[in-house]
Design goal:
It is a single chain. The protein has two domains: about 40-145 and about 245-295, Periplasmic binding protein-like II (D-Maltodextrin-Binding Protein, domain 2); about 145-240, D-Maltodextrin-Binding Protein, domain 2. It has about 300 residues and is of the alpha/beta class. It is elongated, with a radius of gyration of 19 Å. The chain is about 30% helix and about 20% strand. The strands form two sheets. Strands 1, 4, 5, 6, 7, 8, 9, 10 and 11 form a nine-stranded mixed β-sheet that branches. Strands 2-3 form a two-stranded antiparallel sheet. It has ten helices and eleven strands. Helix 6 (about 175-190) links the parallel strand 7 and strand 8 (about 195-200).
């Protein structure tokens, strides 16, 4: 589990489980690899003016990132780091008039490296939560949670899945917390338990549902939405996102006006429509925001 490592207890089953991104799926060759919108993005001088002097001088934004996590960030066959978050970053950098420089890092090392000044920001599907906010600031750009998918034409309700066979990727929060809690609620109500089908890779999870080996799957919302987009009509979303929490760019607390610059740049993209174009291109538009915020964690 890589993205949100904090589990919030004591809430309702359908809304309590913090996002824990764990996708290890390797994207297919048909996966988009470049942004169709970056070339059309124009610099936002008001946002650029908010950059700290050191970044204005260098013209570079050093970004700590961890891959793979398709479709958010991963390497294409040539070894280039791509993904919808990378497209978003590139467009944001254009707004700010700087060049993003991606530097791979262990996921657990990104926040310490931002705090220590090695990276200007971290971007790797970081869930913004109160524990992390005690160390760093977050500029929020997306909302992610858990979402289900089922074969197209089949109605599946995550809140009424007792007795069903549901596939999940091994070691995700969906496998360790979400579905076990739902299954326990089923048996406590005198209904049949959920059969949890544990599979090592997300691609194999998707195929299990397409082939009828499971009736639906549960995964992180952008991963589910992307799987549906890539399924050529074989899969459809089942139910709404739940357990949602914001993703955010990680910024050091002593980074001056950097977070304000990032926030204004993201908001500029939201306002001019390029933000929506990036998300829709990758099939992850359901988690889009209307306002870029700072430190938006609820828990």
């Amino acid at each position: 589990m890589r993205r949100s490592i904090v589990v919030f207890a004591g809430l309702a089953v359908t809304g309590s489980l913090a996002l824990a991104g764990c996708a290890k799926n390797e994207p297919k060759s048909s996966t988009p690899t470049t942004s169709a919108t970056v070339g059309a993005v124009s610099k936002d001088q008001a946002a650029a003016d908010l950059l700290p002097a050191s970044l204005k001088s260098s013209g570079k934004l050093i970004v700590g990132i961890n891959v793979p996590y398709a479709p958010n960030e991963y390497k294409d066959p040539s070894g280039k780091i791509v993904g919808w978050e990378v497209d978003l970053l590139n467009a944001m950098a254009t707004k700010l008039g700087v060049t993003p420089v991606l530097q791979e890092s262990g996921f657990d090392n990104i926040i310490p490296s931002v705090k220590g000044g090695k990276f200007n920001i971290g971007m790797s599907s970081f869930t913004d939560n109160k524990t992390r906010e005690a160390q760093v600031d977050f500029v929020n750009y997306y909302s992610a949670g858990t979402q289900w998918a089922a074969p197209a034409g089949k109605t599946v309700d995550p809140d009424n899945a007792c007795g069903m066979k549901i596939a999940v990727q091994t070691s995700t929060t969906q496998e360790t917390d979400d579905l076990p809690a739902r299954s326990k609620a089923c048996t406590a109500a005198g209904k049949k338990a959920i059969t949890i089908v544990k599979i090592d890779s997300q691609d194999a999870v998707n195929q299990a549902v397409i082939l009828g080996q499971a009736e639906a799957f549960a995964a992180d919302s952008p991963i589910t939405q992307y799987a549906v987009k890539q399924s050529n009509g074989k899969l459809a979303l089942a139910g709404e996102i739940y357990g949602a929490a914001p993703y955010g760019f990680v910024v050091a607390k002593d980074a001056g006006t950097l977070k304000q610059a990032l926030q204004k740049a993201v908001q500029s993209m939201i306002d001019d429509g390029t933000y929506k174009q990036v998300l829709d291109k990758w099939g992850v538009g359901a988690g889009g925001l209307t306002q870029a915020t700072v430190n938006g964690a609820q828990s």
